Structures are given as structure tokens and as C-alpha cells.
Amino acid sequence: MDSADEPTAQDAYDELAEEYAARVDEKPYNADLDFPAMTSLVPNVDGKRVLDAGCGSGRYSEWLLDRGADVLAVDASEEMVHHARERVGNRAHVRRADLDEPLGFAEDNEFDVIVSALVLHYVEDWRELFAEFARIVKPDGVLLCSLQHPIDDYRRLEIENYFEVERQTDTWSSFGTPVEMPFYWRPLSEVINPILEAGFQLKTITEPQPTAEFKEKRPVRYEKVMRRPTFLCLKAFR
User: Fold this and answer.
1) 121-142, pLDDT tens digit by residue?
2) Residue 206 and residue 142: Cα distance in Å, rounded?
3) Which of 39, 110, 137, 235 could form a disulfide with 141, with the two C-beta atoms 3.0–4.6 Å apart?
4) CA distances from 201 to 2, 143, 198 (A)
5) What does the pLDDT read at residue 139?
6) With the CA atoms of 104, 109, 115 and 121 taken in that order, what torsion angle do they form, in degrees rounded to the nearest 10?
7) Mean pLDDT score of the chain
8) Nearest residue to 181 (alpha-carbon basis) of 2, 19, 15
9) H-helix or E-strand spanning residue 10
10) CB half-sphere exposure, 98, CA atoms < 13 A
11) pTM of the model
12) For residue 8, which of 126, 149, 138, 183 has the smallest C-alpha distance?
């Protein structure tokens, strides 16, 4: 199959958008693992200009708006953009934008904070993306991102070459409609170095553990997630 014909994460999210938007707020990996870890890292955003980079159905955008942020939310999936607009109404500007492409919608030094939750593993070229993030965030601005933990994917997918960035595919069925979800696995050095090379200074690295609510929903899986890293959350300053 030609690479141009291969399924994309955008295709997968377009397909499962309805079920995703209806269920993501309660799904334990999202609601009780990633979300509490990421929101604990967010600085005071009252009156601040914030980019929600890969907004999905708009949960982070809504949370940021409730805390006084001026939010621009973007996503590559038209269906997710639709659901995010339904969720936040006219409180934020929501538009389609692909993080694999230059962020031409944004001005230099436009944002005080960039939030990108469980999105970056869908982007192949991190050096171009973080160069763009560095361009559009203000001096002393904050970048917050979460992604699939490379150690977890390395073990789970039995990656043959740890040092090589590789396109992988998961089969997702937990949102009802089974979909093939492609993403890019990368070693830890290829997580950290593109951020540093773009001029960001790492402040915090968090490997979140599940909450009590996670345990109530998925008691067996809770024991595994308590012992093995699932996500990686990073906070950096420009």
C-alpha cells in the first residue's frame, strides 16, 4: 500500500468521533489517569491566551475556559472539531488544523500556554512541530504535553529496534466501533531532544498513576497501571 493510502489517526477519529465524544469523559485512561495528571501541571490561565493543540471533543478546552483562558482549539479531525464546537459553543474559536503541517493559523509569540494531551504520538516529525510551538509561544510561555509512554509501547508491541522511530498500529475497540489507530513510536531520546533543540527548558516530567476512581472502574487493570507506566506528561518553559 502506498503511504498516501495508509489509514491515518485522523481517519480513525473521524470514524469513532460520536462514541468518543459521548464516552471519553468517563473512560478511566482519559478521565482518571491522563486528565488529572495534566491539569495538575497547568499554571494560572486566567486571562491567558491558550492553544489546545489536538483538542479532540473539547474536554481540555472546556476546562481551560472555565478557568478564564482565551482558548484557540485545533484538531485534524473534522468530526472532532464539530464535537468540540458543540461542547464549548462560542466561548472559544475551534478550527481544523493538522499538527503535521506548519501552524500558519498562529502568530509569532501569540500564546502564553500550549496544551497538547495524548496527541503528539500521532505526529511523525517532532522537530518541525516543536520549532513551530517555540515560534508561537511567548518568551517564558509554558508547553504542556502528554503522550503514550515509550517504555509501555516498547514492551507491549515488542518493538524490535528501540532506537528507531517507527509507525505502529493499535486496534481500538473500547469506544465501541473497532478502528485501526496508527501512531509513531519513538525512543525516549526522540521524545526529549526535539523539545530541547527547539529551545524549551524541561521543568517537570510526570509518569501518572491511576486515581481511586480508576480502581473503581477497572480494578484488575488498576493493579497493572500502578506498576507500569502508561503515559508520560511533560511541562516545559520557552
Assistant:
1) 999 999 999 999 999 999 999 9
2) 15
3) 137
4) 38, 10, 9
5) 96
6) 50
7) 95
8) 15
9) helix 9-23
10) 10
11) 0.95
12) 183
